[in-house]
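I have a small job for you when you get a moment. Can you supply me with one protein entry, sequence and fold together? It will help me judge whether the discrete encoding reads sensibly. Write everything out right here, beneath this request:
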Amino acid sequence: MIPISEDEIQEKLRFDNPWWESGETEKRFSQLPRRSYFDPFFELLANRSLNRAVILMGPRRVGKTVLVYHAIEKLLGENIPRDQILYLSLETPLYTGLTLERVVSLFVDIHAHNRNSALYIFFDEIQYHKNWEVHLKSLVDSYPEYKFIATGSAAAALKLKSQESGAGRFTDFLLPPLTFAEYLRFTEIEPKLIKKTGTEEAGYDYDTRNINELNLSFIDYLNFGGYPEAVFSESVRSDAARYIKSDIIDKVLLRDLPALYGISDIQELNKLFTTLAYNSAQEISLEQLSQGAGISKNTLKRYLEYLEAAFLIKIVHRVDDNAKKLKRATTFKVYLTNPSMRAALFGPIDMDSDAMGALTETAIYAQWFHSSNIDKLHYARWKGGEVDIVYVTSAEMIPGWCVEVKWSDLPYTDTRKLSGVLDFIENNHIDGSLVTTKTMAGTKIIRNREIEYVPSALYAYCLGANIQAAKAERQFET
């Protein structure tokens, strides 16, 4: 057997890092707009006061690699020497079997660096490197002047290993799918549809210039808008189902998860995910899933953990009418982290589709995936009523606010549709609630409680924009 030569590896490194010669990144990346997450991500990786690696996590095809290339482009623009930046994808077969330490050593040798050089080293898709967290922690400790940035698609699995083995040495940074606000900005129709209200001092709010046009864009977002590549590629938009299913879902279910967790029955996992995708935003139970999918409950629990680790789903737990968790909870909701996955599997939807209610709720939850407060969200259900979103502020399970999600204007004219949310806010001494609609907006006093009505598409936009603004103000968490 002929081993891969060191010359071949060095030549591949030069090919993957064209700026060593040209001083520029590839045009196909530089021409794409930057995600709203770029500034806090760049400030995090550029901060040399902390001896930590940055772990950029997120599902497939949300733009992690593009974000890295944009960061490299900015480093070059700030006159960081071109030979002090290394990028490599650990999915590349030529690098298989190489340790992270060996790759760094080759980079250092090529450019005659030393241990005090201010280097930037990007490892893409690091989860495919066995025991990556141990090796990366060792590099961080051994080379405090080097800045290490790693990306990976198995978000929760990466986070767990990061916390276990990289405590004090890794900083996690999550890149979710596009928010609705980002989608409108990427399609360059945001100014046409959205206007700011209020003042900078009081905090901006948003309104729409045309709710019907905004709803049409919201439908497009539900069908393919969570993935940046789908926004810019006409061929992807025209066949979003094949792109999203074959390039994203199938790769995770058929390759990523089996490789990471040793799953042998791939078809069983695929069947479960298909069932969950069809029932996004619906209440389900382990018993129902076990019987419907023909999978034992113990295996089912592991699969749910794996799917959540791959950032395909989010499990949301139930509370009762007093916002308390049930001692023997048997039901829960599962939300797709990106509503376009359902459209890819079962076909695109329009405004009158039966699935619009569930997908609207899924999309609104998807905006919250960009917030560290996502785990404070629950849904309430009890005999006689339910509420879609309940925000619990503390370990004592005290509800701070709640939202009822509707893709209909009926709740604006028929208060009987709001009996559940009205009972909940009265029972928990909450001053009011927000109810989403299809097109209607306004405020009403019902049962001495203030009910604010906001169109679902506008609410999704406001959530994404405000959550991102809050992240930008914090810059980053250490």
Q: What stands out?
A: The chain has 22 helices and 16 strands. The CA atoms of residues 431 and 477 lie 32 Å apart. The first strand starts at residue 53 and ends at 57.
